What we know:
single chain, mainly beta, four-stranded antiparallel sheet, elongated
Amino acid sequence: MTQDWEQDQVSSPKSKGNIWGTGGHVFAMAGDASSGPRATATLNYEGMGAKIRRGYVNGSGTAYGIGTTDGETLGTAIRAAWGIPLDPSTTVSPFGQVNWQRTHFSGYAERFANNPFPAVFNDQSYESVVLGAGVEAERRYGWGRTWASANYSSRVVGSSGATVSGHFVDLFAFNVRGAPVPERNWVETTLGGSVKLATNLELVANLGVILPTNAAPQNSWHAYGSAALVMGF
């Protein structure tokens, strides 16, 4: 299980906002990681919110609008794999995976006595399903482990983002259809390793690269990395 929390503040000469988020993840695995079938699953939840004080020029003075909104994301990933031992220390595992995620934001409406032109945004939702398949390899040593993986993924639900509608500065209504999501098909590779620091303490590091296969100008590769201390009980 993991838990995270963050808070950010943004500001400009006439406006400022406070954005917060919190969430957690639960991981589970059944089966033997070195041979035979195994299943892994994760469930994640993120809650977020924002309070915005928007300032704008109104005639010869400045008017202000204050509004709040909040949202939540719920997602899960399930992977089924089969470990094929190449030798006592090396395992190659083909796998298939499905990811589901849903995000919902509540509406945003400004309320302030001296704001003649409040902005209003209706609530919005987005859902996606991604299917993937690939292979991963792991080698075990006395001091730790190393691993690598490669997989191909395709977004089968949620190829366009959420539609946004409302009233901007209370002068006209708008309805903007969700733009296409840049990453609909991609190849992902990872490389990682761990070092045993003590009987129940392990240092883990992982690097990954995502290469979109869609021939679109807005698509580009990107990399990510992580490092963590893992303690067993």
